[in-house]
Amino acid sequence: xxxxxxxxxxxxxxxxxxxxxxxxxxxxxxxxxxxxxxxxxxxxxxxxxxxxxxxxxxxxxxxxxxxxxxxxxxxxxxxxxxxxxxxxxxxxxxxxxxxxxxxxxxxxxxxxxxxxxxxxxxxxxxxxxxxxxxxxxxxxxxxxxxxxxxxxxxxxxxxxxxxxxxxxxxxxxxxxxxxxxxxxxxxxxxxxxxxxxxxxxxxxxxxxxxxxxxxxxxxxxxxxxxxxxxxxxxxxxxxxxxxxxxxxxxxxxxxxxxxxxxxxxxxxxxxxxxxx
Length: 276
Fold this sequence. Notes:
Order of helices and strands: EHHHHHHEEHHH
Mean pLDDT: 89
Structural class: mainly alpha
Low-confidence stretches: none
Strand order of the largest sheet: 1-2-3
Largest sheet: 3 strands, antiparallel
Number of strands: 3
Shape: globular
């Protein structure tokens, strides 16, 4: 049974994680506040890095054109969303993912290119679309999303590190615990309620949306862990000290952004701030 639990431990990368967060968080929040094309270009730049990292870890024999295709898909999807051309953005991403799969087919496992490019590009396009809504509503929409994801991600990490507990899914990510999952869901939900109270929104409705969003964030973390395990890599890259690559830092945000985008489309006005 001892192997099924994680004892509390000290993460040697904690200092680097904190330092990276103190640098990146104010920049991200400042650009979210600014909105417009400043935010879109910021996201597009990160999208390019994410697409590059996906190809690098999932396709070791990829030629340079594979990186070019992946970058074009992700950046194009973000910039088309910034124009409000959501249909064109979806078509660009879908067509690009198919093209990436065709290019990958001769090297085998084309499904990795198809899924990866659609996943990465869809997430960044959804994030840009939320912010490019109306000026006030778009700001609230993205702040709500970020606070829920950050609350879930940070407290899941802290609980898993300092409290330990039963392993969540050892075959996917041996360091994640049920303690972290519960803490992430609780604090992710509370973070969403906090944003709702700050902007005068219904806190009960915010909690009902924040809870599945926090779950989506935790699932996104696990999805990326599973992918890295399948690809035989520890980190997606080494760009961010203490975290690894960009994909390692935003894995929770990706799935949550897709959930937010889907909810905003399926239920107009359903996402806090969107459509207001």
